Amino acid sequence: MGSSNGSFKLRIFSALLLAANCVTGVAAAPPQHGTHDYSQKFSSVAITGGGYITGIVAHPTEKHLMYTRTDIGSTYRWSEPKQQWLPLTDFIAAENVNWMGTESIALDPHHPNRLYLAQGRYVTDTDPAAFFVSDDQGASFDIYKAPFPMGANGLGRNNGERLAVNPFNSDELWFGTRTEGLWKSTDRAKTWKNVTNYPDAAGDGIGILFVVFDPKNSGTIYVGANVPNGLYYTKDNGATWHSIPGQPSAWDPALLHAGHEPASTAPLPMRAVLAPNGILYVSFADFPGPYAINYGIFMKYNTKTQVWTDITPGASNTYPAPFKPQSWPPGGFCGISVDSKDPDTFVVISLDRDPGPALDSMYYSHDGGKTYKDVSQLSTPEGSGGYWGHPISQAKLKDSTPVPWLSFNWNSQWGGYGAPSPVVGLAKFGWWMSSVLIYPWDSNHVMYGTGATIWATDELNKVDKNKAPEWYIQAQGIEETAVLSLMSPTKGAHLFSGVGDIMGMRHVDLTVPQPMYEKPVFSNCDNLDYAGQNPDVVVRVGSSGISYPDGCGSGLYSKDNGIKWSMFGSCPPGVGNQTHLAGTIALDASGKSFVWGTLPTEAPYNETGPPSTQDFGKTWVVPKGLTVSTMNVAADNVQAKTFYAVHGGVFYISRDGGVSYKSSPASKTGLPADAAAVPVTSFDKAGELWLPLGKSGLWHSTNFGTKWTRIGPKGLVAIYFTLGKSAPGRSNPALFLWGKVSPSGSEALYRSDDAGATWVRVNDDTHQYGGASIIQGDPRIYGRVYIGMFGRGIVYTDIAGNSGKNVPGTFGI
Ligand SMILES: *[C@@H]1O[C@H](CO)[C@@H](O)[C@H](O)[C@H]1NC(C)=O
Ligand SMILES: *[C@@H]1O[C@H](CO)[C@@H](O)[C@H](O)[C@H]1NC(C)=O
Ligand SMILES: *[C@@H]1O[C@H](CO)[C@@H](O)[C@H](O)[C@H]1NC(C)=O
């Protein structure tokens, strides 16, 4: 048996090397006609992490060479000179978005320039997963489609590494799949063969979690799968396989809490590290993770004597002793890193003590696990009341740049992701800390990934003296938020974001991380709007996960450009704190009328039109004339009380603040019969609006939607559409389109300066990011557009040479 896929080969160069070419041009004299094709500069909006770091992998010999993988944002390489992580796969096209997650990273101990990435986000995706093969540390890749699926955003993504290079044969790679057992390639990941004699294919969707070669014994490989007794080894390079004798095959009843059965019948392997002295350290849990783990153990296996020793950190071997009130859940174990200079010195991290006051811990041992120091407790400042965490003042980069959003400083009012320390003034030590690395070139430098970022210290030795090491953030350059909404008003901060899990930010400076929005807080911020003629009034809607007695925690407005926020007096009928209801918020030009296109699922709320309020949510009115529940609402930015909706081909307009609507069928307006999209309204002309209708093209109206015309070339596909500041000498706004401007063209970002007659491509093949999830033009900076991705954060692009005089984020305030 076997499967070959060698026919497909694609040579792709990442943005890394080519980005420099894109900033060489300088804005030429502005054209009066047509659309000028400028060089563009691309930059990330600095949030610094914002998503799950699933792996940190260092080369064993090449100094400073390390990579980090993420679940939905692919892989980054550390640049020591730049002190920054560099994205390696921004070239991924929208059609290959499934490649935007890294299932595993493999390095070749003998060829430091070689990099192997196993790319695929979801096992259920119909697009194939792939191996990205590089000979230049990820500056360019050959891509080979894989004959099995991958699931970088699936359960068990915290474990690994599934992919490994045979240290005795650089052409040979092995890969533990989620669904098809163990596979082997003898041509550097071009083609793969099923290792059908492997005894336990464990094709349960999580499958084989790690493949560990013994670099001292040719042919010896350790493989672990997400099943009880899931540890196997071979000494003859896979000719025969054996169960590792003595592995834990049942839970110790003393570990278990009454009334809480473990999720597995025996400990499941999570990660394994083979130390140079032949000790295999293995972490175990009762569930693959990264969430829902209740129990776990940590063991070492002497591969020479075949003896197992339970070295689980606990009350009898750890200082300080485990925090007392912490009883449930005790959690499992996952991340392990062994000091490159001493095989008995290592760290291991618990997984999923959340929620609880103690949270997860990093344990540090110098004696092979006989005794431990609890790094998390020792990092806790005095006066924390027993809660563990870093002081908030430490949420900063090594160069002291603050990363304020990481403080999660809202106490019990945080209803979202990652449950922050319940003590105001403490950022918690971490959660989902499954990736950890003792820096091979400095044993006091340890870094660990969390669900949100990478923390690091250069003072691990301080815990030996029972002192707190100083921690800093080492995630600069990693941008992996899932972007849900973007807003660029005509005044104040240039950019407001709504993102998944960490709410979003008012980006007064695009180059440094910002605080999250003030209270009340959301986990997801789904939509934003501003008042066209009163742009200090802004609004956001999202999911808070918290029910408030005195207002609507899902809908908030601000009268000072998003610094302080107030809840609507009440939620509209049928809306609670849930994420799926948030929908679209539209705020009229004056800042007094709001229309909320929510998405209630229960009758009767799902059978009315979008409710409106004229009194900041004290009362909500269900409209007349628009009786369907729709998210496709927008406000006119010039004329007060004027709202638009497009649903089922019907165009609706309200001129009384959303209380009543007049409707016009497609046959009258000229729109397609199935037209449905959120209208995009001019920021300076009343009654001018656009409608992006996918394959049905881009539509335009200048008379309050009475008549519509299709604009742009034939075959234009309008997936996302936004407006930006006019080109010099033009009165119409610049149009930005994510889509196609010809049927056979590429899906890309385009700009038109002349109202849609001519278009130029804005992004090149090295800046595709797996496709956008949203685009937003800037009404104050010609040529600037913000691009939001699902897993690659926010990127903004400027006309090269134009960005220098526009200080990012602060220009025009
Ligand atoms: C690969 O082999 C395993 C047995 O080890 C089997 O369960 C699986 O179906 C095979 N998959 C393919 C695609 O050949
Ligand atoms: C969210 O609202 C629902 C009802 O809409 C309620 O049952 C639930 O308890 C609320 N969640 C929180 C955390 O308050
Ligand atoms: C409204 O929700 C009910 C279920 O609560 C469903 O039966 C009905 O079809 C929904 N109506 C619409 C218009 O979606």
TrEMBL record:
InterPro entries noted in UniProt: Sortilin_N, WD40/YVTN_repeat-like_dom_sf, Xyloglucanase_GH74
GO molecular function: hydrolase activity, acting on glycosyl bonds
The keyword Iron-sulfur is annotated on this UniProt entry: no
Position of the signal peptide: 1-28
Sortilin N-terminal domain boundaries: 131-244
A Pfam family annotated for this UniProt entry: Sortilin-Vps10
Keywords: Carbohydrate metabolism, Glycosidase, Hydrolase, Polysaccharide degradation, Repeat, Signal
Keyword match Hydrolase: yes
GO biological process: polysaccharide catabolic process; xyloglucan metabolic process
Domain of life of the organism encoding this protein: Eukaryota
Family from the record: Belongs to the glycosyl hydrolase 74 family.
PANTHER family xrefs: OLIGOXYLOGLUCAN-REDUCING END-SPECIFIC XYLOGLUCANASE-RELATED (PTHR43739:SF2), XYLOGLUCANASE (EUROFUNG) (PTHR43739)
Name of this protein: Sortilin N-terminal domain-containing protein
Organism, as annotated: Pseudogymnoascus verrucosus
